[in-house]
Amino acid sequence: MMADGILDTVRRDVAAFRARCGIAPALAVILVGDDPASHVYVSRKLKASKRVGIASIERHLPSETTQDALLAEIDALNIDPSVHGILVQLPLPRHIDAAVVLDRICPSKDVDGFHPVNVGRLSTGTQGLIPCTPLGCLLLLESVVQDFCGLKAVVIGKSNIVGKPVALLLLERECTVTVTHINTRDLPSIVSIADIVIVAAGSPGLVRGGWVKPGAIVIDIGINKVVDKDGRSMIVGDAVTSELEHAAAVTPVPGGVGPMTIACLLSNTLRAANMMTAGRSPDAQGAQPIPRAG
Question: Where is the Tetrahydrofolate dehydrogenase/cyclohydrolase NAD(P)-binding domain positioned along the sequence (predicted)?
């Protein structure tokens, strides 16, 4: 699995960082409330952190935590020199404005890549910290695509977390990118000309085999819980995998993009630690090319 290879590299580089700096890179994860799925995601991230030698700091706050109290928690982590990455697990309780919270994280510690400073760097083809899921998608594509130049890519979904940033990454690779959404007309015909299809719509079984041309690559980011005809709960993606035998490559759900997201999160944490120890400020991260696989 490609994610395992990235984690092995991160573990090696973390060991080198500790030997050089005398400390471990540290990731702080804030979880507000008791959403069961969020607990699972946080547990996986903390387990992976331990695997690669990154120190983890968990802040589990009750669901009634006020927005001001959460912001104060972030402020404390922002100024703590021993903390290199900060992640606030989404979703947050309804009374908390997620945009305000994410904007409060110091850009150089924003290992999720959601801060406007990092979004701006991505949009200009340089980068601070890249959103983890889009970066994981790009690395998966780079494992099977030799030359992106001129390829037609269709992104289904325009979220700030996945759709928009992955489109920007593909543009940086010289793809011709079409971003679609719920109001896009004649979606099947648009998808049918794509060399690369990235679907992040949150709609189980949206992309059918007849939509996808032979030899195309499908990256399925959908995570949907459904109940089958026998009443069993199962996780499925946004594409009907059983109808995509003619595709060149299809990511499985679960087990495809998800592990890559966690691997890229820890890679971002190490990168943030290296930036901090090199003395770079949040406003002077430097214009650097978006990293490529390998």
Answer: 131-274
